[in-house]
Amino acid sequence: MSRIAELTSLLMPHLMLAPIGLPMLTAALLLTMKEEQQRLKLGLNILSTLLGLLVAVALLLWSHESGAPATMGVYLPGNWPAPFGIVLVLDRLSAMMLLLTGFVALCSIVFAGARWHRAGVHYHTLFQLQLMGLGGAFLTGDLFNLFVFFEILLAASYGLLLHGAGRTRVQAGLHYIAINLAASSLFLIGASMLYGITGTLNMADLAQAIPQVSAADRGLLHSAAAILATAFLIKAAVWPLNFWLVPAYSAATAPVGALFALMTKVGIYTLLRLWTLMFSSEAGPSSLFGSLWLIGGGMVTMAFGAIGMMASQRLTHLAGHAAVLSSGTLLAAAGFGQNALTAGLLYYLPSSTLAVSALFLLADLIDRWRNDGASLAPYELDDVAPFLTPELMPTTGLNLDEDEEVLVGRVIPAAAAFLGLAYMACTLVIAGLPPLSGFIGKFAMLTALINPLGLGSSAGTQPGLPGWTLIALMIATGLLALLALTRSGIRHFWAAHDRPTPQLRVMEGLPIAILLGACVALTLQANGVMRFTEATANGLHAPGTYVRAVMTAAPIPGPTTTPTPERAESSATTKAAP
């Protein structure tokens, strides 16, 4: 790993352009190719996404160098110093989000390669543009460029949502487009107000300017921040602004739904980034502004997501509400502004995202297996135990062994066993049950709420009403999620159906196995991952390092030419002239 970090250091800071430039160039190349060249397009898409994932791994290792409290990468694309020019910033948080994006994207495109990428035109181009927008949103250090990358990823998501056509997708797509256009308008209004008050849109410069805002403009500043936050809360699926998410995500094709599981995390990332910069404990009168709104909104969103899971019958709706539940948990935990709690939520964030993405992919395979192409197959009474008579006695001549004795149960095909085990793993992670990473993430957050100063140092410290409420909600919503997923699992796996053995391709099963294998890896490497998230949380809640790194980044001096004697004499004469 040290060799990778050393090699990355030689390529820095220019390597930071790769998460943006690589998918942009790939999308341009794919756009020039004919639709008949689907296999070549798929190969280029997978290769580009894999290279992007490797770059993300290198950037993560570089950002977490051993012994370094905070390793920052700052790149000035226009060679203008902040806050006058565009700036890209890499720290542990942005590197983690890039790695998560590359990982989920690679699994999504491999799954799509089995069938879904042929359902419409320009799928691969839109997919790469989506990755470009996500990479830019995680790396940019400027609000205006954040808006630009938001629009890129949203424009690509419109096309991906409509991929495959159909009335349901068109209807959900129109709602999705309308709400995101409204969010973009709020983004522009809030950013414009902030610029009018502070005179800057650079995030690091905003962190310096906000404590200096006059008392007369403080209310206007808070209003601008609230309008801007509303745009991000829409993307983070906070209640009641999340009415669009479940219909849109469930209408999308399975690989698109898996990729969209990242979209809510873009809103979470942006809120966490801007809130810790603009309204940190060093923001003067605006310190921790909006924390109660984040906590309250997150808690209500958690309740909405859990109730929605209980009310859902379709697996895609379950996955959509699970994404809402995860988002609400992250928002509520972020609002407390505690280092240990933030470290726990940063561990929980990739775990929940991976599980929800895997559930979207599983939903496609399970529905195809059970429904034989129908949108919703009815449940019959004889589905409960087809090997029993109406009197609940074994059916004669059915399922007998060599001695003509009735066997209890049947041999489970390997494909069905894989789907069942994968579904169980998703259930454990989403519900937060041991032994997988979802439990560790929730346990870390619960521990931080009860012992905010650490074990042995929090005697007499109480979580307070918000803390106890979040503790109760995390336990209760986990139980409701478990009940909802278990009920659905019984219907699809336990109750036998007269159906053939599921047809499972390697390109469909492998991405699901990799996503859930990553959750297992997070569990096995929990100690190292938690150290990483603790360092990330400490850096977020002490934004001075971020601000200094951005504001002190110096442009590269231009090439100089050695003056000839005649030019030197002319220059000296000019300077000496009155």
TrEMBL record:
Keyword field: Cell membrane, Membrane, Transmembrane, Transmembrane helix
Record flagged with keyword Cell membrane: yes
Annotated transmembrane regions: 12-32, 44-64, 84-111, 131-156, 176-198, 219-239, 251-272, 292-312, 318-337, 344-363, 411-433, 440-459, 465-485, 506-524
Protein localization: Cell membrane; Membrane
Membrane topology: Multi-pass membrane protein
GO cellular component, one term: plasma membrane
InterPro entries recorded: CPA3_Na-H_Antiporter_D, ND/Mrp_TM
Keyword match Transmembrane: yes
Record domain NADH:quinone oxidoreductase/Mrp antiporter transmembrane: where: 141-371
Region (Disordered): 555-578
Alphabetized Pfam families for the sequence: Proton_antipo_M (PF00361)
Top-level taxon of origin: Bacteria
Entry similarity comment: Belongs to the CPA3 antiporters (TC 2.A.63) subunit D family.
Name of the protein this chain belongs to: Multisubunit potassium/proton antiporter PhaD subunit
Organism: Diaphorobacter nitroreducens
